[in-house]
Amino acid sequence: MVLTPSQMVPLGTALPLPLLTAELASGGARQVSGSPDLQQALASGSLAGRPLLVLFICAHCPFVKHIEAEISRLQRDLPEVQLIAISSNSILSHPQDGPEGLQAQASAHGWTFPYLFDAGQRLAQGFTAACTPDPFLYRWDAAAGCHQLAYRGQLDASRPGNDLPCDGADIRAAMAALLEGRPGPREQRPSIGCNIKWRAGEEPEWAR
Known about the structure:
single chain, alpha+beta, Glutaredoxin, about 30% helix
């Protein structure tokens, strides 16, 4: 495990919709559990207008296991926000993060949102995801006609072993602001966790 912070992509960055659509269409990424069918939802435009929370997670990471219950609570408490989970870890080094492991994880925690297996690792590269967990919260910008990044950072200050409550305080504050039409938090602290497990020699430059 290499302890890694998120890259803190610039706020206002557009959701990489063409990449997401192309990877689902080509099979470079595939949905292994949950609904709606994300490929169909993106094609129909049914997610336009809804906030999106994209979570780069996996099945084995202790930092993800630490927040699994809070992810379940976010799903329950904020139905207005569409959650999407993506696992991009190489299954050559971490086979437990393959489709079956992700399906088992989702089933164990009652996750019904789309969970994608990013076999080609191009989604992680396109989002500039660096660690697990790595959250990206997008607001819908009607004028621009696209989702734009409103928050990127930690769910809360809790980490495995630090005894702080895992309550999603930071991400919940960002979601509340978004849903109420207010600006997001001015201070956004990076998420931190295990590095994404890139295939040998295929790490993006910023991950080296």
